[in-house]
Amino acid sequence: MTDERHPQAPQDAGAPAEIRDIHEVPAVEVITTTAVHLMTAAAVKVGLADSPDARELIDLDEARKLITALAGLVVSAAPEIGSQHAGPLRDGLRSLQLAFREASPFPDAPGKGPGEKLTGPVN
Fold it and tell me: In the Cβ-directed half-sphere of 10, how many Cα atoms lie within 13 Å?
């Protein structure tokens, strides 16, 4: 049985509204929103938080994981979401990779930083 408003969506009265409505969200929006969440978390972990205690929040191990995950998402999704969406995500990723290098007391060799295996060396 289908929902009359959305003939392709299965009707399930027991499903939460979030699940019934998620089919209305375009994939590009889900992808970019996820990327923004990863960027925000990584920015905090590399010390770019807009707060007086930003330096205390630095956690480069966590930042490395977030930036690498972001790189994987951006690189793999770029062909699907188009350059108008992928371009700003790539710019944000590059900025985070550079911020990570600057925050690190022992910077990684070029090509060895977070996500650089996927994006190539960032200078």
Answer: 5
CB 119 within 8 A of CB 72: no
Task: Dig out the tokens for 118 from the structure.
Answer: 């996927």
Q: Does the residue 18 lie in any domain?
A: no
Q: What size, in residues, is the chain?
A: 123
67 domain-assigned:
yes
Q: State the pTM of this model.
A: 0.83
Task: Return the ∠ at Cα 84 (arms to 81 and 86), rounded to 5°.
Answer: 55
For the chain (123 residues), the mean pLDDT of every run of 10, in chain order, is 47 65 90 97 95 92 98 98 96 98 94 97 91
On whether the CB atoms of residues 119 and 71 are closer than 8 A, the answer is yes
